[in-house]
Amino acid sequence: MTALLLSLVIIVGIVSIVQMLRVFDLSNALKGTDEIQVNDQETNNIRWAFVVFFLGFFAFFIYLVASFGDQLLPQSASLHGLEYDWLMDLNMIIIITAAGITHILLMVFLFKYAKNVSPKATFVTHNNRLELIWTTTPAVVLTIIVIYGISAWNSMLMDKPEDSINIELYARQFDWTARYAGEDNQLGKANFRMISTTNALGVINSSSIDDRLNEYDDQIFELEASREKVFPGGVSDDEILDNIILVKKNRAAVLQYEEQSKNENFDIANDDIITKVEFHIPVNKSVNFSIRSQDVLHSAYMPHFRAQMNAVPGVITHFYFTPIITTKEMKKITGNPDFDYLLLCNKICGAAHYNMQMNIIVETEEEYNKWLAEQPKFNVAQAQ
Amino acid sequence: MLRKHNKNYIGGKKMAGHKETFITKYLFSYDHKMISRQFLLTGTTMAFIGMAMSLLFRLQLAFPGESFAVLNFFLGDKWAPGGVLDPNMYLALVTIHGTIMVFFLLTAGLSGTFANLLIPLQIGARDMASGMMNMLSYWFFFLSSVVMIASLYVESGPASAGWTIYPPLSALPQAMPGSGTGMTLWLVSMSFFIVSSLLGGINYIVTVINLRTKGMNMLRLPLSIWALFVTAILGVLSFPVLFAAVLLLIFDRTFGTSFYLSDIYIAGEALDHTGGSPLLFQHLFWFLGHPEVYIIILPALGISSEVISTNSRKPIFGYRAMVGSILAIGFLSFIVWGHHMFVTGMNPFVGAVFTFTTLLIAIPSSVKAFNYLSTLWKGSIRYTPAMMFSIGMVSTFITGGVTGIILADAALDINLHDTYFVVAHFHIVMGLSAVMAMFAGVYHWFPKMWGRMLNKKLGFVHFWLTFITAYGVFFPQHFQGLAGVPRRYYANTEFPLFDGLSDISYMVTMFAMVGGLAQFIFLFNFIYSMFKGPKAPQNPWGSNTLEWTTPVEHVHGNWPGDLPIVHRWAYDYSKPSKDGTDYRIPGQDFVPQTVPLEEGEIDGEGH
Q1: How many whole angstroms separate alpha carbon B417 and alpha carbon B415?
Q2: H-helix segments, B314-384
Q3: pTM score, whole prediction
Q4: Could you give the C-alpha distances from B580 to B11, B515, B544, B584, in angstroms and in order?
C-alpha cells in the first residue's frame, strides 16, 4: 500500500513538473524572454544568493565549532600528544586562514563582477609578479609545515626511550588481546602455527611446542579415522586428504621451527602475561607496543593517546607513547565518571569491525605493579 | 584518410554512403559523439545506483539498529531482516558505493564522456584516432558495469572489503561472506574496466598528439584538452599496475599463491601461506590509487577552466601556469602514494619522504585556485548553471584541498588516518569537486551533445540544492573525524565515546536525503530536455573553441566541409581592438579560434 502511494506521489510529482515547465515555456514564448541566457534580474538574485550562501557557510562552520568543538581532539593523554595537538593547531590556523581568505575573495568577486554590475570584462591574460607571489607564498608556508611536521613525525616514531615497557597488542576477528613481557621485559616468540584453543596467541615455549605437536598428531589420527566414515553428500575423501596434507605440513613446519631454534631460549615466554577485555599501563612510563594480527589487517587506534598503528599479518609493527594522565584523573577532567580510554580497531576487518574494542586503564605505577602481580604468568596459565 | 575510414567503414564492413542501422548508429557506434553520450548515460545510471546505496547506509548511521521498510524492500530478508541493515551488507554497500563512484562515475563517466566529446571537437579532428578501439572501450566499460551490478545478486553478497579491497580480508572467503563469489566478480569487473580505460586512454593520447588541426599547436589547446591529455597519460601509466595487483590477488584467491598472504590463522586453521605481504598489495594499489584521484580531478579542473573563462568573458588567468600546474600535478601524483600508508608500519624515513612530496602538490594546486579567482576578478560573470557549478567546484576544491595539507603530514595523519576526517577530505576535494565539474560540463555541453538546451531554472534549483546539501553532508564529517570516529563503522553506539556526536550523523543523513532527491530534478531536466528542450543555437555561450563551429545536428566527421584552421588560443574573450575603443571584433566580446590574427596582434599570453 505504501509502495503504491509512494509511486503515485512520484508520478504526480513528475507530471506536475512537466506541466509547470510547459507553462514556463509558453509564458516565456509569449513574453519573448530568453530561455537560454541568464537575464539581469536572475544575475542579481544569484550574486546575492552567493553572498548569503557563503555567509551561511561561515555561520555553519562557527555553529559546528561551538556545538562540537569541545569534543574535537579530546584532552591529549600522552606526552607526544601534546606536541601533536600543538602541530594540529598550527596547521588548522594556516588552513582556516587560507580557505577563509580565498572564500571571501570568491564571494566578493562573484558579487562585484556579476554581469549586471560589471557589463564589460577587462582583458587580462596573466601577471608574472602576482603569479610569482602566489607560488612562493604557499611554498614558504609549506616549508614551515613540512619542517615542523617531519620533525614531529621523527620524534614520535624514531626516539623510543630505552626503558620502555614492552606490551604486545594482538588483533584478530573481532577482539584484542594484550601480552605483557613480564619481568625480563622481553616478549616470547610466537608463531601462527602454534595457535590452538589453549594457546590463542601461538606463544612458544618448550612445553607449548610439545603440546602443539601432540595436537597435530591427534588431528591427523582423527582425520585418518574419519576417512573410513565417508558417506555420499558429506565431506569427500579428497577433501579429508587435503586436510591431512595441510596438517602434516603445519606439523613439519613446527618441527623444523623447533629444530632451527634449538639454541634459542624459549623460557623468555614463561613470564609473559596475557590479558583480554582490558589492559593496564602505568602513567609517565614509556610503553612500547608490538602489534600483531592473526588473520586480516586491523589497526590499533587509541585516539586519546594520538596513537595508531596497523596490525599486519606476517609482520610485527610498533608504536610507543608515554601516557601522562591516569584514568582516574581523566574521569575528573572530563567530568564523566564512566570515562574509559579505548583501544579501537580502525582498519576494516569484517562484520563486527565496529565493535572490536578494549579498555585501557592508565594508573599509577604502584597500582599497575599490583595489578600485574595478580595476573597469571604464561607458563602457569598453561599448566592449568 | 581518416575521414574516409569513418564514413565508409562502419562495424568493419564497407557501407554505402551514410546508411546506418540502429546497431551501428546507437549500439556499436564508432562516432565519438555517440560514444561520449553512451559513457554519460551509463555513468549516470551507475551514479544513481551508487548514490542510492549511500542513502541506504546513511539511514543505518543516523538511526543505528532501527528498522526501515525501505531497507527491507531493497535488500530483502537476508540482508535487512526486519528492516534492520545487516553489518555485512553495510560494508558491502560502502564498498560498492565507493567503487562505483570512484571508477564508474568519476573515471569512466567523467573522462569517458568529456574526453570523447571534447578531444576531437576541440582540436579539430574528424574523430578519434581509432574508432574501433573507442567503441571497444565503451563496451568493455559496459561489460564491467554489468558484472559489477550482477555481483550485487550473488548469494553470499557483493564485495565488502572496502573499495580498496585490502587483502587478506578480500582474499579469504572465511574472513567475510563478501570475499567469496562477490569479490571474484568485483575483480573480473575491474579487469574489464582496466581494459576499457587503457583502450580509451591510448586513443585520447594518440588523438591529441596526432590529429590536431592546422594551427592548433600545443599551447593553443584549451585547458580542457590539456587536462584530459595528461589524465589519459596518468591512466595508461597507472592502470596496468592495478591490473597487476588485481591479477596477483586472483592468483592468491584461486591458485594458492602467497603474494599477499602470510602467517594467517583463520576459521580454526593455519593457512598454508607464508612469505607474502599485505603491504605489497597496498603499494601496488596506491601506485594506481593516487594517480587515480588526479585522473578524477584533472578533467574536472579542465572543464571548469573552460566554463569559468567563457562565462567570466575573460581569458583564463595565467594559461601557461595552468598548463604547468597540470603537468606538475600529473608528475607529482606518481611519487606520493605512500601517504596512504603512513601507519602501516613502513619505515618512518619513508614516511617523511612521502610527507615532503605530498605537500609539494599543494603548490601547483594553490596556483590553480588563485588563477581561478583572478579569472573571475574584473570579469563580467554570466551565471549559467554550468558557471555556478564551476564556482561550486572552486569552493569545494579549496575547502577539500586545505585539509589535504593536514592529512599529508605524517605526524598528524597518525590520529586522523581512517577516520571521518579522511572521508570528509576526499569526498569534498575529489568527489564533490569532480561531480560539480561534471555537472558543469553537462550543463555547458548539453547543447553540443543533444542539440537542445537544458532548462536553466531547473538548473538553478538543482545547483543550490546540490551545493548546500553537499557541504551539509561532508563538512560536518571533519568534526567527527577530529573527535576520532573511525570510518566504515556500522554503528558508533557500542561504547559511549562518540555519543555526543550522534547529532552530526543525523544531520548528515538529513542533508544526504535532500541532496539525493535533488538529483532527480537533474535527471528529469536531463531526460525532458533531451527530447523537448528548446533547440540549441549554434554557439549558445559565445565560446571561442572549435566545437561551437560544428553544426548543431551531428554529422560524421564533425565538420561538413574542410577542417577549421586555428589562428589563436582559445581565450580571447573581451579582447579590445587595437585602438581600444571596441572589442577586437566590433560588437562581439569573443574571438573564435578560427579568426586570423591581425597584423601586429599578439596571440595568447604574448610571450
Answers
A1: 6
A2: 319-332, 348-376
A3: 0.93
A4: 54, 47, 20, 8
State how beta strands A273-276 and A278-282 pair. Answer: unpaired
8 Å CB contact of A193 and B524 = no
Reference B454, options A144, A60, A221, A38; nearest CA is: A38
Which residues fall within 8 angstroms of residue A220, CB to CB, at 6 or more apart? Answer: A244, A247, A248, A251
Cell numbers standing for residue B481: 573525524
Q: Do A87 and B320 touch (CB under 8 A)?
A: no
Which residue in A2, A22, A28, A36 has the most chain B C-beta atoms within 10 A of its own C-beta, making it the best mutation to test that interface?
A: A36
Contact B308, B234 (CB under 8 A): no
Beta bridge partners of B158: B182
Alpha helix stretches (DSSP H) within A266-316: none
Using a CB-CB cut-off of 8 Å, the residues of chain A touching B313 are 121
- Backbone φ/ψ region at B597: left (φ over 0), alpha (ψ -120 to 50), beta: beta
**Helix A79-112 × helix A40-68 angle, to 10°:** 160
Alpha-carbon span B148 to B22, nearest angstrom: 27
How do residues B99-150 score in pLDDT, each as one tens digit?
999 999 999 999 999 999 999 999 999 999 999 999 999 999 999 999 999 9
Q: Which of B9-13, B205-209, B291-295, B492-496 has the lowest mean pLDDT?
A: B9-13
Which of A149, A11, A15, A159 has its CA nearest to residue A84? A149
Task: Give the whole-angstrom CA distance, residue B395 versus residue A57.
Answer: 11
Amino acid, res. B29: S
Other C-beta atoms within 10 Å of B103: how many? 27
User: Residue A381 and residue A276: Cα distance in Å, rounded?
Assistant: 14
Angstrom distance (rounded) from CA B325 to CA B372: 13
Of A326, A317, A316, nearest to A285 (Cα)? A326
Minimal-distance CA residue of chain B relative to A341: B497
Backbone angles phi, psi at B230, to 5 degrees: -65, -35
Is the CATH number 1.10.10.10 carried by domain B32-266+274-549?
no
Contact state of B537 with A87 under an 8 Å Cβ cutoff: no
Q: How far is CA B424 from the centre of its chain?
A: 17
Q: How far apart are CA B246 and CA B224, in angstroms?
A: 31
CB-side neighbour CA atoms (13 Å) of A36 = 16
* Shortest Cα–Cα distance, A302 to chain B (Å): 8
**ipTM of this model?**
0.93
* A125, A156, A219, A340, best to mutate vs chain B, most B CBs in 10 Å: A125
If one counts every other C-beta atom within 10 angstroms of the C-beta of residue A277, the result is: 11
| SS3 readout for A105-137 | HHHHHHHHCECCCCCCCCCCCCCHHHHHHHHHH
Per-residue model confidence as pLDDT tens digits over A231-282:
887 788 888 898 898 888 888 888 888 887 777 778 889 999 999 989 999 9
Question: Chain A partners of B376 at a C-beta cutoff of 8 Å?
Answer: 106, 109-110, 113
